[in-house]
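User: Second chain of the day. Same drill as before.
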Amino acid sequence: ASNLPSRVVAAAAGMLLTAPAMAGTLYQVDFKVAYKTGYKSYTSYLGSLCYDDENLNGSGWEKLSLNGNGSTKKGLLGVTFDFKGHTFTEADDTDYPNYPVIKFYNGVFKGLDFLFKHYGNKYHVDKTKFEKNDCYKGYVCYWDPKVKAIPTPAAMTGGLALLASMAFRRRRKA
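Assistant: Same format as last time:
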């Protein structure tokens, strides 16, 4: 039992040394698709996406994708969309892995471009509009991007220092 603090410190140090370095900030954006089901009637479906802003320079139009090829930069981490009883992810995009993409103007999030098929129909989340087989079927609303709480090496360093001081104090008492 007396070696427990030193083991915890050693384990935390190992985690710190193997943790990937992250220069950007991770964000989550939740969205709602209002799907037109009749005259003035809509059904809502929810989705979420996550991105790392490390490769954004904040000037003009920019796009982030999963793999960052062509005119897009790497930074999209994932998409989920619950639609008509199914959960669609970035891997369901018809142009995966080059799509989906998310768009920014002067560093401000503007929307998602995500095209998927469901029971033979083609659905498209295109920034603020939702289409079925290239016909307007509704709109997309986004909540403001929020920072995701992900442990970073800097945060882990603080935890490691706390553990080390606890272990040192325990040894002095013994």
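The longest strand covers residues 26-38.

User: Great, on to the next one.
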